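Quick one, probably user error.
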């Protein structure tokens, strides 16, 4: 079963992308995002798709426009994550058969994203909304809406967010920072996966 965790590799370079991706994948995180404000992000995505595409869902983050959606698709990406809600970006992503995870902060943005066909919602920055704010938003969302918390979420916060109704999380600085070795990233990934599974009562 795929864990509802997105590994955000902001700042990764093409030369290290596969080794870092392998380390994250080995820990159990099978959704990988390379933000487009990373060095040569499309090449990193291409490398990850070629090496891991049969085992992982790979795509881009910080996707702001339709042209960027098409560029991600052209290198094999199948995931588009954004910090904001733009219906044209969501619609083009879905037209191309990719998953769309737009950033939302308010009910208006959440429903606009769902109306445009979003696969799920990225509550961002989650630290700004807080657990109680997320709980209030969750209460008005349609049943079955997938809501991931992103921004300021780490192992220490998993239990509170999950108890309040979040479905998953995007893991950035807690998982990977530029310059870290694959071994270090793998260790961090294993700790995050263990903490997430512990909220389900798993050993």
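Nope, works fine. Designed sequence:
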């Amino acid at each position: 079963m795929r864990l509802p965790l997105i590994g955000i590799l902001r700042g990764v370079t093409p030369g290290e992308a596969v080794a870092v991706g392998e380390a994250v994948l080995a820990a159990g995180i099978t959704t990988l995002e390379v933000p487009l404000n990373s060095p040569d992000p499309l090449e990193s995505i291409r490398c990850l798709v070629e090496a891991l595409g049969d085992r992982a869902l790979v795509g881009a983050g910080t996707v702001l426009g339709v042209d960027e959606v098409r560029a991600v698709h052209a290198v094999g990406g199948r995931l588009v994550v954004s910090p904001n809600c733009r219906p044209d970006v969501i619609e083009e992503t879905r037209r191309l058969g990719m998953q769309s995870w737009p950033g939302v902060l308010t009910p208006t943005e959440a429903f606009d994203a769902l109306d445009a066909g979003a696969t799920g919602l990225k509550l961002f920055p989650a630290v700004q909304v807080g657990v109680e704010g997320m709980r209030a938003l969750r209460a008005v969302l349609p049943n079955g809406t997938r809501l991931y918390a992103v921004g300021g979420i780490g192992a220490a916060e998993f239990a509170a967010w999950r108890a309040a109704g979040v479905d998953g999380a995007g893991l950035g600085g807690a998982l990977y920072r530029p310059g870290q070795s694959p071994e270090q990233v793998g260790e961090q990934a294993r700790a995050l996966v263990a903490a997430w599974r512990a909220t389900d009562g798993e050993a």
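The radius of gyration is 16 Å.
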